[in-house]
Amino acid sequence: MTEIFLTAIFADNLALSFFLGICTFLAVSQRLGTAVGLGLSVILVQGVTVPLNAVIFRYLLADGALGWAGLPDIDLSFLRIIAFIGSIAATVQILEMLLDRVAPALHRSLGIFLPLITVNCAILGGSLFMVERDYGIAESVVWGFGSGAGWALAITGFAAIRERLRYSDMPEGLRGLGGAFIVTGLMSLGFSAFGGALP
Amino acid sequence: MTRGLAHLLRPLIAENPVTRQILGICSALAVTTSMATALTMSVALTAVLCVAAAIISAIRHHVPGSVRLILQITIVASLVIVTDELLQAYAFAVSQRLSIFVGLIVTNCIVLARIESFAMRNPVGASVLDALGNGLGYSLVLLIVAAIREFCGTGGLFGVPLVATQETGGWFQPFGLMRLAPSAFFIIGLLIWAIRSLRPEQVEIPEHRLAPARGGS
Questions:
Q1: Count of helix runs (H) and strand runs (E) in chain B
Q2: Considering only CA atoms, which of B50, B49, B54 is closest in space to residue B27?
Q3: Which one of A25, A48, A85, B27 is at 20 to 30 Å from B110 when CA atoms are compared?
Q4: Half-sphere exposure of B13 (CA within 13 A, CB side)
């Protein structure tokens, strides 16, 4: 379990080694504060949707999963993409309403990021990886929170670097987007070094 | 006719979805370790984008604004499932190497952005041309990056060795970093640098300027 958690944060970092959610990663990293907010929302949504999708897949979609309903021959696993997108969109909507009710202050700071997250490929990618790697329910909870935390860590670090980068004297063509890619590459190089350190 | 041609040609370099509009980068980076995967992904994305644009443009007058996003995602997701099943049926080896990234075409921002900003407002013909242009612009970047990565990483293209590597008694030492994730970031960064050097109007305006150096230090 610890192994899955640590691998999800460092060696298999969704943003830096699988390039998931890079569009948002580059677009919402101009300020450290907003990056932290987005990172927290991703941890929250990822931690809820991955286990939810694990349950949906295990008991509704996988090969023979409908055995409990007396239909053991049905394999609906090809529906997983559309089912996951639906459950993610619904979860985000519910979380938004729930946060608005329970913690209005938190909702004010995270609210604008939640709709963005529906189309963040890190979230859908996390669920699809869970299926591909055949994680159980408990493992998927750990993987969900771990991969969310890894993504949050990456965007927080990147935004902090980018705040400094703004004052640096870069070649004209590299200013902004080009430089951001090079810095992400360097960060990715650093994170991939963790791959050898883990058991 | 010239307008149609403009829809097709502008997204190739001037308005390239990857380097200019920052769309669809996730998959652009992940599948570029070899030409075979990059080409499959390009064809899959271009096909999904064109068909989705045609369908959505055709029904655009009948879609209430409040449900348009969910309708768009459903249409795109259905097309992606069809593509995924087709790939698994006819190109199983490549589809295994593409792993989850065909599925991620659903959340690829190019698809949603072109549908939402273009196909919802334009007739079918123009929408398909725009989709085709953006698909080809994306493919162009993907194939350039994949060509660099596969050639430098293995000394061949499409799995066919072009120069003899040291393992087989030649002179070429494969550049192992090119097979890892970070190299894709570096290559796209340098590609953006190259495009912006050729087209200075794309350079971003800095938020701060350095003070001029004080003379006589």
A1: 8, 2
A2: B49
A3: A48
A4: 7
Please tell me which of the candidates A19, A123, A192 has its beta carbon nearest to residue B29: A19
- Chain A residues in contact with B81 (beta carbon < 8 A): 78-79, 81-82
Contact between B37 and B94 (Cβ < 8 Å)? yes
- Structure-token match 């003379």, residue found: B215
Q: How far apart are CA B24 and CA B68, in angstroms?
A: 21
What's the CA angle centered on A189, arms A122 and A131, to 5 degrees? 30
Q: What is the mean pLDDT of residues B148-164?
A: 78
- Are B192 and A178 inside 8 Å of each other by CB? yes
Question: Which structure tokens are listed for A177?
Answer: 């987007």
Of A141, A159, A194, A188, the closest CA to residue A39 belongs to: A159
The token pair at B9 is 């040609």
Task: List phi, psi (to 5°) of B67.
Answer: -110, 10
Does an H or E element contain A145, and which? helix A137-165
Mean pLDDT of B96-102: 78
Provide the shortest C-alpha distance from residue B81 to chain A (in Å): 7
Question: A40-97, pLDDT tens digit by residue?
Answer: 888 888 888 888 988 888 888 777 767 777 777 777 778 888 888 888 888 888 888 8
Chain B residues whose beta carbon lies within 8 Å of the beta carbon of residue A19? 25-27, 29-30, 181, 184
CA-CA distances (angstroms) from residue B50 to A10, B47, B112?
37, 5, 12
What are A121's two structure tokens? 């490929």
Contact residues, chain A, for B109 at CB < 8 Å: 23, 119
In angstroms, the Cα distances linking A165 to A15, A49, A156, B178, B210 are: 20, 34, 14, 26, 12
**Count of CB atoms within 10 A of residue B146's CB?**
26
Examine the predicted complex and report whether its ipTM is higher than 0.95. no
Q: Are A126 and A47 in contact (CB under 8 A)?
A: no
Q: How far apart are CA B149 and CA B36, in angstroms?
A: 12
Identify the three-state secondary structure at position B161: strand
What ranges make up the beta strands (E) of chain A?
Answer: none
Q: Quote the distance between the C-alpha of residue A183 and its chain's center.
A: 20
CA-CA distance, B28 to A29, in Å (whole number)? 20
Nearest-Cα distance to chain B for A140, in Å, is 17
